[in-house]
């Protein structure tokens, strides 16, 4: 009998990285050193692992890491909230239930809000 290769379908999720970081290096330090390293890593917005990796490989840390402003984070949260609402409405609409008039109005208002947000984003990126 021939052995058939079993084809497995990927179920979505996060794409695999080209280079996986799966090897662990152990480092011993005092509690004071550990806290000092953590504070320095946090000051440049890196994890302790990334901070130590950059220091070991190049002797310096690239401080050009961009931090998103609070407004952008709030905008992202608002967009996530709106998309969750739209998802619920779409699921209901694609099922057997019909939308109520209030739900239709809510959908219309949220789609208008999304259009305004996208216009605002586009204008701020120019």
Topology:
Layout: H1 31-43, H2 48-58, H3 70-94, H4 101-125
Helix pairs in contact: 1-2, 3-4
Report a brief summary of the structure.
This protein is an all-alpha fold and 126 residues long. The protein has helices spanning 31-43, 48-58, 70-94, 101-125. Helix 1 (31-43) packs across helix 2 (48-58) and helix 3 (70-94) packs antiparallel against helix 4 (101-125).
What is the count of β-strands?
0
The radius of gyration computed from the alpha-carbon positions, rounded to a whole number of angstroms, is 24 Å
The helix content is: 55-70%
Compute the number of structural domains: 2
Order of helices and strands: HHHH
Number of helices: 4
| Average residue pLDDT | 80
Structural class label: mainly alpha
* End-to-end separation: 64 Å
The low-confidence runs, each spanning 5 or more residues with pLDDT under 50, are: none
What proportion strand?
under 5%
Overall, the morphology is: elongated
Q: What composes the largest sheet?
A: none
How would you describe the overall organization of this protein?
The protein has 126 residues and is mainly α. It folds into two domains: 39 residues, no CATH class; 56 residues. The chain is 59% helix and 0% strand. It is built from four helices and no strands. Helix 3 runs antiparallel to helix 4. The longest helix has 25 residues. It is elongated.
């Amino acid at each position: 009998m021939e052995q058939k290769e079993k084809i497995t379908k990927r179920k979505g999720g996060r794409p695999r990285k080209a280079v996986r970081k799966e090897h662990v290096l152990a480092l011993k330090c005092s509690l004071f050193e550990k806290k000092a390293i953590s504070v320095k890593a946090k000051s440049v917005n890196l994890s302790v692992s990334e901070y130590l990796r950059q220091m070991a490989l190049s002797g310096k840390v690239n401080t050009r890491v961009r931090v998103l402003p609070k407004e952008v984070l709030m905008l992202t949260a608002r967009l996530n909230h709106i998309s969750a609402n739209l998802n619920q409405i779409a699921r209901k609409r694609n099922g057997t239930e019909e939308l109520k008039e209030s739900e239709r109005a809510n959908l219309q208002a949220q789609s208008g809000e999304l259009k305004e947000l996208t216009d605002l984003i586009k204008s701020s990126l120019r």
